Amino acid sequence: RQRWRADGRALRKLPVHVGLVVTEEEPSYADMASLVVWCMAVGISYVSVYDHNGIFKRNNSRLMDEILKQQQELLGLDCSKYTVEFANQDKTGPVLNCQSTLKVLSPEDGKADIVKAAQNFCQLVAQQQRTHSDLDVNMLDNLLSSTNGFPDPDLVLKFGPVDSTLGFLPWHIRLTEIISLPSHLNISYEDFFSALHHYAACEQRWGK
């Protein structure tokens, strides 16, 4: 545990929000749980898990069980400091003094959420609670329910051979650094930390 904390502090910059995007057809609950727990251990505050088939979200209790198991095995008593929250669902576990929060997302939390936000805004205009000129970036951010309370991802780790994020939060990743890894299956901590090190060394020009 001390090594992981030291690794996080040693990086020149640590992402606040990491997206873990699986493009492979057979997701591994154990390997994804390892990635989530490593994110927590190095000090990343927000983690999003996504697969384009929505398997993790449909089976979130199975993923949660695996995360809790690995929290206890890898973090010991420190597991009491962490919490898991599933998008559009009630929080599970204690939320006070938590260091990391997880959301499990599916395609319905991407483009479909944008459509729903647009419909909600149009309804507000029709009810004369808003005018069309009120719509801006901040307003749309507030209307998006799937990422409410989450900052935009600083880093996306994409796993698998597909050269696409397959609908992962299209509104939120315009400035996100995306690093591709061959697979999340049997991934090692060294591979994970190497990706964080690569991110820390990147110079982000913000479109300039």
Mean pLDDT: 81
Strand content: 5-15%
> Can you count the helices?
7
CATH class of the largest domain: Alpha Beta
Q: Looking at the chains present, what oligomeric state does this protein adopt?
A: single chain
Task: Report on this structure.
Its cofactor is Mg(2+). With about 210 residues, this protein is an alpha/beta fold. The protein folds into 2 domains: about 160 residues, Decaprenyl diphosphate synthase-like (Undecaprenyl pyrophosphate synthetase, 3-Layer(aba) Sandwich); about 35 residues, no CATH class. It is about 40% helix and about 15% strand. Strand 1, helix 2 and strand 2 form a beta-alpha-beta unit. The longest helix is centred in the first third of the chain and has 16 residues. About 5% of the residues have low confidence.
Question: Any chance you could write out the topology, listing elements then pairs?
Answer:
Layout: H1 2-10, E1 17-22, H2 29-42, E2 46-51, H3 55-58, H4 60-75, E3 84-85, E4 91-92, E5 101-105, H5 111-126, H6 137-143, E6 155-159, E7 177-181, H7 189-201
Parallel strand pairs: 1-2, 1-6, 2-5, 6-7
Antiparallel strand pairs: 3-4
Helix pairs in contact: 2-4
Short description:
The protein is α/β, with parallel strands linked by helices and 208 residues long. It contains seven helices and seven strands. The chain folds into two domains: 2-107 and 149-201, 3-Layer(aba) Sandwich (Undecaprenyl pyrophosphate synthetase), CATH 3.40.1180; 111-145, no CATH class.
Task: Record keyword descriptors for this entry.
single chain; 208 residues; alpha/beta; Undecaprenyl pyrophosphate synthetase; five-stranded parallel sheet; globular
